[in-house]
């Protein structure tokens, strides 16, 4: 064991034998640390002709509106994660009825897996990460106060498939990487 | 700074304030390490009525057959990752023409995002992780020598949608979590 604490753990940046990318490697034991993209799961939830949005109580983008979404947990199925996020943020149970979209935001190594869902009961009970949860008709959506580009994408994609029983899920719009934060007016 | 090297880094298992799950936390600085599920991207690739399979040159399941797939890299879009894996393992360029399936294997915290793809040129050039790459007609597929349950699922799901221009992607078959390795005959 080395006496230099700084040498412990994966701290040397190199391309391991047989690999194609740089990784953090432990100089002592050769352990390779693989960092991986993160998965966000969520759902655009409709009740009749209204869409569920939650106003964020936390940063980033506190005070702005999103559909329920968050990081998939270890040992959790993607569908179960989406249902959990809806439950945690809006306090409701929904039924998933299709995979709406798979988006990638390469700059932050994030993949978003977004389902289409339906509410049977419109009684909302926001959790601690949500200032307010509301159902909006299309022409009431606070477009200038949406938190992230992917919220714009997902709402538009939901509208395209709202009346379809079966549909191919959407991906990033052409040319869009979401590698920016859209400038929006303050709420 | 503590003199006890063992106390450095995220080494204490606890539920951080405001969180719902146990994480590894640094006792010194409070840093919280979030471990996340990993994303595998891949593609079931067809050339006319034949499907591409690669025989694995690496463990796990060395010598068994898979469709091209592997871990998504940091800063990589999911579609780009699937194309890269096909290129690395079979030495070919394909066109993705639909999202075939999103599977979760909760036991190993893995999400598989699998596309449907077409080869224009059937000349295969296997890479270092592949012993052999071949195109199989349906009745030639080495069912007893497939590497993982998700390979079975994806081939069957591909067959269901092979003639459809637009289709909803598949998920785990009912009751299936892939939390086992199917017993298969030796090759």
Task: Write structural notes for this entry.
- In chain A, 14% of the residues lie in helices and 34% in strands.
- Chain A is of the alpha+beta class and 187 residues long.
- In chain A, a hairpin with an 8-residue loop joins strand 5 and strand 6.
- The N terminus and C terminus of chain A are likely disordered.
- Chain A is elongated, with a radius of gyration of 20 Å.
- Chains A and B meet through helix 1 and strand 8 of A and helix 1 and strand 8 of B.
Task: Please give the structural blueprint.
Two copies of one chain form a homodimer.
Chain A: E1 10-14, E2 23-26, E3 32-33, E4 38-47, E5 50-56, E6 65-66, E7 69-71, H1 78-90, E8 94-105, E9 110-119, E10 130-137, H2 149-161
Parallel strand pairs in A: 4-9
Antiparallel strand pairs in A: 1-2, 2-3, 4-5, 4-7, 5-6, 5-10, 8-9
Specify the structural class of chain A.
Answer: alpha+beta
Low-pLDDT runs of 5+ residues of chain A are 1-5, 181-187
Q: Mind summarizing the main beta sheet of chain A?
A: 7 strands, mixed
Shape of chain A: elongated
Largest interface, C-beta within 8 A = A-B, 39 and 39 residues
Mean pLDDT of chain A: 89
How do you describe this structure in short?
Chain A has 187 residues and is of the alpha+beta class. Helix content of chain A is 14%, strand content 34%. In chain A, the strands form two sheets. In chain A, strands 4, 5, 6, 7, 8, 9 and 10 form a seven-stranded mixed sheet that branches. In chain A, strands 1-2-3 form a three-stranded antiparallel sheet, with no helix packed on it.
